[in-house]
TrEMBL record:
Belongs to the NifW family. It comes from the Bacteria. This is Nitrogenase-stabilizing/protective protein NifW. Keywords: Nitrogen fixation.
Amino acid sequence: MSIIDKLKSLHSAEEFFEVLQVEYQPEVLQVLRLHILRRMGQYLVSAEFDGMSEEEIYSAAQTMLGQAYADFIASNPMAERVFKVLKEHDPNRPAAPAAKPAFVQLGSLKTGS
């Protein structure tokens, strides 16, 4: 089984850290697991594995998980904003223009009689 197939079969954040042999603090992982795995996924998607050996892919995945973990140790979920809902509520992002209220002239209204 390739390392990519192995990673696809994992079910918990702890399994990723164990398989890739990346040290972690359980109390940190308990709180940040989804953010860390999402960030690792972003790193994996941007990587080019064609032509790499299984050992090179393993090493790259290990580095990516370690980097994802370090991102959240050095920062926090609100600053990193890996999930859409957090990106949409970024106070530094310009607000979307407000929809113009529909204007209805009083003269165009008809009575029910």
